[in-house]
Amino acid sequence: METNKFDYENFKKEAAQRLKNGESLLGKEGVFTNLLKDFLEATLEGELESHIATDKKANRKNGKGKKTVKTTVGKVDITTPRDRNGTFEPEILPKRSSTLGVDLDKQIIALYARGSSYSDISDHLMEIYGLDVSEATISRITDKVVPLIQEWKSRPLEAIYPFVWLDAIHYKVRHEGRVISRAVYCVLGINQEGYKDLLGMYIGENEGAKFWLQVLTDLQNRGVEDILIACIDNLNGFADAIESIYPKSEVQLCIIHQIRNSVKYLSWKDLKEFMKDLQPVYKANTEESARSHLDKLETIWGDKYPKVIESWRRNWHRLSRFFQYNKDIRRIMYTTNIIEGFNRQLRSVTKTKGAFQSEEALMKLLFLAQQNICAKWSRPVHNWNQTLAQLSIIFGDRIKLKL
């Protein structure tokens, strides 16, 4: 059976003449558009003839259909050959595909992951590829990540995480005709190999210890048996929630959060001097030295700012945990900077959003954004081998060293 072939030499002569006559290269009647049309039709015919020749069941051609194909040079109307058995599956242009040379789903999801709105994505595809893609179609394509989100949220986790940071970030979401606030609870850990891992993101009404308890229970159900050190802000009841699920965990309150909370109560005239006197407290080499500097701070400022001093005293048993470790471990645990840095990257993607249409829309974007962020976590944290060796001495058989 003779296969249809595209007559390139004849086209080359015709195209050259048409270009000399000033005809357009692209566009509906463009020189190259007709070339693409002829090429696609000839290739489809060739694929069908090859399919019929190798089909084990008796088969033959069965007329033609019509199809408008979206390409990087615009729309092209072509005829598509059919077979009697309906088993022909062309490779160059699959049956249910209407685009050529553009992975439309991949393009749309990549743009959405960078924070582009549906209308921006639609405009981009029209400007770059000449493709008229509706916002409804874009929504349907981004919905394809929903099953991936559910799979990611339920994936098994490692049994032991030496460090875990827990923090929330807040967004506006439309709900029943009004805009409400939602907290996205983020959990970031470092595994025993020293690599960062986002363990989960959870959407709740408001940040509170009760919801954090649900988050921690989910981590436990997904396989997390032990957390050595948990780093958090000073949310009321948060530490108790952690210790109720992981009673052996050491909870370190973020020093930076404690300082920020202290600043709220200071007069701007006293801020510089107070911070100068406070610095030796959290930068001390030992807890004993830190306590001594805290006593001095109270002597100087206790009468004027009793609430600030009382807050440091009340939280001291969880603020001072980091003093028992060496500098490498202190650097990792004494603030929640690692997870706040992650949150800043999320905000850079979502900053153009006013209010999300739904919680699902919010989670779709955050899930795609975290994929891009986490893909960059390809190296273990600095000096991890030395850090792990120290942790194995301190925590004993709670660390499972791989020798």
Order of helices and strands: HHEEEHHHHEEEHEHEHHHHHHHH
Q: What share of residues is helical?
A: 40-55%
Low-confidence stretches: none
Q: Number of DSSP strands? A: 8
Helix segment tally: 16
Rg to the nearest angstrom? 31 Å
What does it look like?
The chain has helices spanning 8-20, 31-54, 104-113, 118-129, 135-142, 146-153, 209-221, 238-245, 255-263, 271-282, 287-301, 306-319, 327-333, 337-350, 359-374, 384-395, and strands at residues 61-71, 74-83, 99-100, 160-175, 178-190, 196-204, 226-232, 250-253. Helix 14 packs across helix 15. It has 16 helices and eight strands. The N and C termini lie far apart (65 Å). With 403 residues, it is α/β, with parallel strands linked by helices. The chain has three domains: 1-97, no CATH class; 102-154; 157-398. The model has no long low-confidence stretch (mean pLDDT 87). The strands form two sheets. Strands 6-5-4-7-8 form a five-stranded mixed sheet, sandwiched between helices. Strands 2-1-3 form a three-stranded mixed sheet. A hairpin with a 2-residue loop joins strand 1 and strand 2.
Secondary structure layout plus pairing:
Blueprint lengths: L7 H13 L10 H24 L6 E11 L2 E10 L15 E2 L3 H10 L4 H12 L5 H8 L3 H8 L6 E16 L2 E13 L5 E9 L4 H13 L4 E7 L5 H8 L4 E4 L1 H9 L7 H12 L4 H15 L4 H14 L7 H7 L3 H14 L8 H16 L9 H12 L8
Parallel strand pairs: 1-3, 4-7, 7-8
Antiparallel strand pairs: 1-2, 4-5, 5-6
Helix pairs in contact: 3-15, 7-8, 9-12, 10-11, 14-15
